[in-house]
Amino acid sequence: MGLNRQLRKAIDAGLRGDHRAEVDQLGRRLPNFIIIGAAKSATTTLTTILPRHPDFFICRPKEPKFFGRRYDNGWSWYGRLFREGRSFRLRGEGSTMYASALSSYRHTPELMHRYLPDLKLVYVVRDPLERIVSHWRHRRGRQSRTRSFDGLMDSRHLRKLVVGCSLYYERIQAFRAFFPDSQIHCLTFEDLISDPRATLARLLHFLGASTDDQHLDLLLDNGTLPRVNEAGDKGRELVASPQWTPRLRQSVLAEVGPDAQRMLAYMGKPADSWLL
Fold it and tell me: Radius of gyration (Cα) for the chain, nearest Å?
């Protein structure tokens, strides 16, 4: 999705720093952490369970998509989303498109850093092929005219949106150009599922929240991660999981495979963590 004239004008003004006075007036009515993606990697689960912890406030909608295609809504609009969170230690949101390759989010990292330089960023990633399948199913469930899975690489938009969101290292590099690694926390979907307690403890420690057993218990359902936003939820059509053809798998792996290996190395994870 490209930028219309009004949005382009708002972003240009934002990049020049024209909104500094407005932002300063908002104070604690702004987030101090953001979950930037990736889509279909349990980000909705995180934004659902974190408010169980007394330190956290997550705005509604949980995906305001402000630092991109809704920047022309203005900072006053964004601040109102966090008005009820002023007394909370940690205020956040989770717009997965912030880590997309779409042109309307090209300036997301720079806008965030210009006005919220102390922001902490959380990036959840997943086996890139499994994430692509889940993302395509989600989109097909919402828009039945979405191209078939076999034609994924033949659609410029789907290739950029669905496949592009699995280029994790490329996307995190855009944020690392503005934010130090000390303000970025990456975790995997697989770790959240297999060892939710330890994975959430590391996340809470990064964000500066209490990590004692009592608070960790609040985030889990009998020690397991709650399952939310499953395929077919929220009125979406339940789309069957597609099968990879050898041709499509080879084509997608050629695009995402090298990036995935760089991302695993950046996170300090074994090179065989994902089935590439």
Answer: 19
Q: Give me the percent of the chain exceeding a pLDDT of 70.
A: 96
According to DSSP, the residues that pair with 124 across neighbouring strands are 187
What residue segments make up the domains of the chain, in order of their start? Answer: 5-127+178-241
CB-based contact 184:175 (threshold 8 Å): yes
Is there a contact between 266 and 188 (Cβ–Cβ < 8 Å)?
A: no
Beta carbons of 271 and 256 less than 8 angstroms apart: no
User: What is the mean predicted confidence (pLDDT) over 247-255?
Assistant: 97
Determine phi and psi for 169, rounding to 5 degrees: -65, -40
Judge whether 56 and 209 are in contact, CB under 8 Å: yes
Q: Which residues fall within 8 angstroms of residue 64, CB to CB, at 6 or more apart?
A: 70, 78, 81, 93, 95
Indicate the fold that domain 5-127+178-241 takes in CATH: Rossmann fold (3.40.50)
DSSP 243: P
| pLDDT per position as a tens digit, 162-215 | 999 999 999 999 999 999 999 999 999 999 999 999 999 999 999 999 999 999
**What type of residue sits at position 254?**
A
What DSSP string describes 173-242? HHHHTTS-GGGEEEEEHHHHHH-HHHHHHHHHHHHT---SHHHHHHHSBTTBPPP-S-TT-TT---PPPP
- CB crowding 203-214: b at 16 or more within 10 Å, else e: bbebbebebeee
Closest CA to 82 of 28, 39, 135: 28
